[in-house]
Amino acid sequence: MLNSQLSQNNLVVLAGFPKSGNTLINETFNYAGEIASPCWTSPKYEYQNQEGISKLETTSFTANPFLGEQRCHIKTHLAYSDKSYDSGGQSLAIERIIVIIRNPFDTLLSSTNYLRYSASLNKRLTANQIATLKHFYPNYTETDVLTPNVFNLEKLRDEGALDQALEIFSASNTCIPQFLARSGTWLDFYASFHQAKQPLLRIRFEDIVNSTDNYQTVSTELSQFLGCDAKILATAFGRQNEACREEKNADNLFFPVAKANYFEKYFAPKTLRRFCKKYGLELSASGYEDLVDRIMSS
Question: Fewer CB within 10 Å, N- or C-terminus of the chain?
């Protein structure tokens, strides 16, 4: 059994499917800690396998001042299971879970952009990334991805490749091969948290990006959930938003389109409607009933 008593060190898990805003919310919590205690330096805590938890049990634990004594946050892309989300130790417990959700269309586009980012950074793709490329874009090669004027969202849209990719995404139960082993499919990842035993809060990426009013509302919800200062968190969201804009203005490929619902520029309405006809119930269960209604009425 998990023990959330503060006699232990406690983790607030920030969970999200890859390319759904984990970095955004993780960095926001880092900023919040720095605002609460300017001398604090955020640790790089990530939980992608049991080793990530084991390190925290055997090495020094650095609490986040925003979260209070004996609490820190940790970023993960792991789908929920009792085994993965039970730390199993005597000195450390997973206390609460925050799940950040991004609509599947922007997630697919962001995953496509990530191929470009990784290729630019490493001058090659990994085997899993090549599998993703072949899955969604069978008519393109690794060399194409390394050529920006050949493999970019505008070019892929104009050649019909993005609509084809969305059809493949739908037919494969929202599978993105490079993320499958750790996170499952998009649908399965978010459905897995229905069985969570810890207190859990779901927030949408779309509700905190590029909107001061929205992230102040989310800050209130998050702070009530965590028992923390909402003003600090709202200020932290503002700092993260500004840092993101600076990275975009500097042409950092990791932040090419950090905004909500940009998929409407890239997919044909009929392709979006077909996806929603198939997965409308699942999208609504994930908090996207409004999005389904908008797409189906377009």
Answer: N
